[in-house]
Amino acid sequence: MTDDQTSAADAGGSAPQGVGRTALGVALARAAESARPDRLFDDPYASVFLRAAVTAENGPRPPRGERTEAWSAMAAHLVLRTAYFDDYLRDAVGPDGGCVQVVLLAAGLDARAFRLDWPDGVRLFELDLPEMVAFKERVLAEADAHPRVERHVLTADLREDWATPLRAAGFDPEQPTAWLVEGLLIYLEADDAAALLDRIGALSAPGSRLALVRDGALRRTREMARRDPAMAPATRLWRGGLGRNQAQWLRGHGWLVHETDERQLRERYGADRVTGGHGFLLAERPSPARSAARPRRAAARLLVLDPDGSVFLQLHHDAEVGPHWVLPGGGLEPGEGPLAGAVRETVEETGWTDVVPGPELWRWEHDYHRADVGLVRQHEVIYLASAPRRDPIGDLTASFAADGILTCRWFTPKELAEVTEVLWPPTLVALLEDLRRDGPPTEPIDLGYLPNHWPGMG
Q: Which pLDDT tens digit goes with each residue over 33-78?
């Protein structure tokens, strides 16, 4: 036990109530998973916490009879969440992760300090409310549990200043940190959630990571839980969290954000373990030097218009920008001219061989994240082109996968003005209005460098 644990452990340690009581539900799901022969993880302390809570006549007893659909769905999420965050922390502190500190916010009955293997030199900090910490430390002491990592436990209300006691406990904001926000944000009001994430950002050195459940990922499960009276002790505590798209909010505040979807989770954990709506976010704090020293990438695209003036766009996704609509085209091959490259890429991505290219319209620079390279600064040339309105031709599955194309479609001017995702270039609506009114410019327009984080993006 470290010095910062002592006062909490001396507080008595009765079973937690209120928000802290939800940790017992998590322990129940973890204990059941640990008893399975095909378990995704083994948490021997989950059952220890449950027995201690039941003995105190304050904890949830194992459900008798048939479980409700809502509880089964929520339990499946809690199991998958635990396994995914286990893997996240192993990667973050591993040789390729480089994080030397771990912070578990609202740690609850998390026993990762005791059940995971940790590299030498890692320091782990757990923060939670006093009554939760007191109960947990009492039970662990009675079980003679010993952490496998340098562990510091702090009492804190995460709606207040928790950074000061964290620093006082030895946390170094100059060192890369792996942050875990597991099932916390939904219990916070929007302002408190934003303040929490802001504080994490301020304490995150380059190379730091942050993991959390993707907002909206459990919409159906949460709707079922709200309708289930048995789930009321948890659902009546829900406050909604950030209230905005978490991934885009984080990108707007300097994080690279990778989104793990159901397909990736099924590949990793098995289709029978992943129900509809699962998803997680993994954010990374890039270094200023890495951001400034982006390699240059030359690219060219076609502004393809149909006879009625609709424009053809593709939906892409990357860690720095998130979902964004772009014109067909892409990177140039060595020695390839911009127009030839734009036409070649468009044919590869659409199957159209009859697109009629026109004059050069615009040039611009922008930043984004390529999975195979990392952060790049792309220099694009955009040409006018015309084609009949139709869907892409042929089997383009491989091409879409290689270029990260999620979908594609035609947009009328009205539809384009109502797009909520990022447009590339971000001034595309205004540029098209000028083009329709004035025709192609006599000289290509250089838009210069346009940042991704313009007002309203976050």
A: 999 999 999 999 999 999 998 876 544 544 444 578 888 888 999 9
Question: What pLDDT is attached to residue 371?
Answer: 78
Query: For residue 370, what pLDDT is reported?
Result: 86
Of 447, 429, 392, 396, the closest CA to residue 311 belongs to: 429
No. of helices (H) and no. of strands (E), the chain: 17, 16
Q: What is the pLDDT of residue 404?
A: 84
pLDDT in tens, 169-189: 999 999 999 999 998 998 899
What is the spatial distance between Cα 40 and Cα 406, in angstroms, rounded to a whole number? 30
CATH class of 3-289: alpha beta
> 294-449, what's its fold?
Nucleoside Triphosphate Pyrophosphohydrolase (3.90.79)
**What is the value of pTM for the model shown?**
0.81
Integer Rg of the chain from CA: 26
Query: Is the peptide bond between 425 and the residue preceding it cis, with omega within 30 degrees of 0?
Result: yes
Alpha-carbon gap, residue 377 to 451, rounded angstroms: 10
DSSP state of 186: G
Q: Encoding tokens for residue 226?
A: 């709200």
Residue pointed to by tokens 């002592």: 6
Candidates 414, 403, 253; CA nearest to 327 is: 403
Report the C-alpha gap between 204 and 410 in whole angstroms. 41
Residue 304 and residue 416: Cα distance in Å, rounded? 14
Instruction: Tell me which of 378 and 62 has the higher pLDDT.
Output: 378
Per residue in 332-349, is it b (16+ CB within 10 Å) or e — as a string? Answer: beeeeebbebbbbbbbbb
Asked if residue 289 lies in contact with residue 375, where contact means CB atoms within 8 angstroms, the answer is: no
- Matching residue, tokens 């393809």: 304
| Residue 199 tokens, joined | 């504080």
Contact 416, 311 (CB under 8 A): yes
Domain boundaries, the chain: 3-289, 294-449
Contact status, residue 356 vs residue 276, Cβ threshold 8 Å? no
Band of residue 7 on the pLDDT scale cut at 50, 70, 90? very low
Q: 386: which 2 tokens?
A: 């015309």
Q: Report CA torsion sign: 317, 321, 324, 330.
A: negative
Judge contact between 187 and 214, C-beta under 8 A. Answer: no
Backbone angles phi, psi at 199, to 5 degrees: -70, -40
CA 131 to CA 21: how far, in whole Å? Answer: 10
